[in-house]
């Protein structure tokens, strides 16, 4: 199937919220990891989301170029061609973009999609994330409001973060403290500034102890009830019935989370869960195994030339692709999204 249209992406999110499941959002940095993500979703018979971070986009453009728009555009165009051969719907998304990178990443990408829409085509990406967690909430939401209007015009969904995700990702580090838990008042301020869809559809990354990186189960102190209370205070402000979930939530930093915590968070309205560290590890482990087992073959030892069958990148990348795909299948099963393909 082709990359999801804005209408199909909206239907995907509607189905997730109504069915209380979430889509894995898989970070990719190359055509090979993108192929692994596509294979994983196809093997799981699940629609899904593929996303590119600022660092991933820069890397994809080439180490001599280091341009985020070039790299993300190249991967997105590649995905539009290759995904057409798979029997699942895939949405393309850009991950955390802080204030100092907006002009070099999200804003030009929105403009690029606006040009496509003006030509009667679909946007290049289906959603973009604005990460204003490092600045004052009022400024965060002011910028979010501006971006939301532009995203809506380009048929794009915006993701907004309130609260802070701990740990490190793409060189950005945050301490593990009380800022990891979004305050109830912040949910209310978000409704005041962005509405609940009438100004444009958005996803909300509210934090409840989330930490980037790899952690053993139980090491991360998650409090999913923060999401529950956030939905409640927003519903109360809007005069909605008890049990309403006005927000479509995103789960960042899921590595090391207990399965019951994941399921609880999903029950409170999480429709998207970011997966990066786990799939990086799954991809790199078989490559390391290949090189250790074929040491003589991949290096020129004592004047020898090695074994082309073992140093040809295809010999180990195809195994890495399979391992990463398998991890995505597991993630889809954990999020109860397997079998949610839209025909």
Automatic annotation (TrEMBL):
The active site is at 95 (proton donor). It catalyses: beta-D-fructose 1,6-bisphosphate = D-glyceraldehyde 3-phosphate + dihydroxyacetone phosphate. SUPFAM superfamilies: Aldolase (SSF51569). InterPro entries: Aldolase_TIM, FBA_II, Fruct_bisP_bact. One of its GO terms (cellular component) is cytosol. Binds 2 Zn(2+) ions per subunit. One is catalytic and the other provides a structural contribution. Zn(2+) 2 binds at residues 131, 161. GO terms for biological process: glycolytic process. PROSITE patterns: ALDOLASE_CLASS_II_1, ALDOLASE_CLASS_II_2. Pathway: Carbohydrate degradation; glycolysis; D-glyceraldehyde 3-phosphate and glycerone phosphate from D-glucose: step 4/4. Zn(2+) 1 binds at residues 96, 212, 252. Keywords: Glycolysis, Lyase, Metal-binding, Zinc. Its EC number is 4.1.2.13. GO terms for molecular function: fructose-bisphosphate aldolase activity; zinc ion binding. Catalyzes the aldol condensation of dihydroxyacetone phosphate (DHAP or glycerone-phosphate) with glyceraldehyde 3-phosphate (G3P) to form fructose 1,6-bisphosphate (FBP) in gluconeogenesis and the reverse reaction in glycolysis. Belongs to the class II fructose-bisphosphate aldolase family. This is Fructose-bisphosphate aldolase. The lineage of its organism: Bacteria, Bacillati, Actinomycetota, Actinomycetes, Pseudonocardiales.
């Amino acid at each position: 199937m082709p990359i999801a249209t804005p209408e199909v992406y909206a239907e995907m999110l509607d189905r997730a919220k109504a069915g209380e499941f979430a889509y894995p959002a898989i970070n990719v940095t190359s055509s090979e990891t993108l192929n692994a993500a596509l294979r994983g979703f196809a093997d799981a018979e699940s629609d899904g989301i593929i996303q590119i971070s600022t660092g991933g986009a820069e890397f994809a453009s080439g180490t001599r170029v280091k341009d985020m728009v070039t790299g993300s555009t190249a991967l997105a165009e590649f995905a539009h061609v290759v995904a057409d051969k798979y029997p699942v719907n895939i949405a393309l998304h850009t991950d955390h973009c802080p204030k100092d990178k907006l002009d070099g990443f999200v804003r030009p990408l929105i403009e690029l999609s606006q040009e496509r829409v003006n030509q009667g085509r679909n946007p290049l990406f289906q959603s973009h994330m604005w990460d204003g967690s490092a600045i004052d909430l009022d400024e965060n939401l002011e910028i979010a409001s501006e971006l939301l209007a532009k995203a809506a015009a380009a048929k794009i969904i915006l993701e907004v973060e309130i609260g802070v995700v701990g740990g490190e990702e793409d060189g950005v580090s945050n301490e593990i403290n009380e800022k990891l838990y979004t305050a109830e008042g912040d949910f209310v301020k978000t409704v005041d500034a962005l509405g609940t869809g009438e100004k444009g559809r958005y996803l909300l990354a509210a934090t409840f102890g989330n930490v980037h990186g790899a952690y053993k189960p139980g090491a991360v102190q998650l409090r999913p009830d923060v999401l529950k209370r956030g939905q409640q205070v927003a519903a109360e402000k809007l005069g909605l019935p008890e049990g309403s979930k006005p927000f479509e939530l995103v789960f960042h930093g899921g590595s090391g989370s207990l399965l019951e915590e994941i399921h609880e968070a999903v029950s409170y309205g999480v429709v998207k869960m970011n997966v990066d560290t786990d799939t990086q590890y799954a991809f790199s482990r078989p490559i390391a195994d290949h090189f250790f087992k074929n040491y003589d073959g991949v290096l020129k030892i004592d004047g020898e030339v090695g074994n082309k069958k073992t140093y040809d990148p295809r010999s180990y990348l195809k195994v890495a692709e399979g391992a990463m795909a398998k991890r995505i299948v597991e993630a889809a099963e954990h999020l109860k999204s397997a079998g949610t393909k839209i025909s």
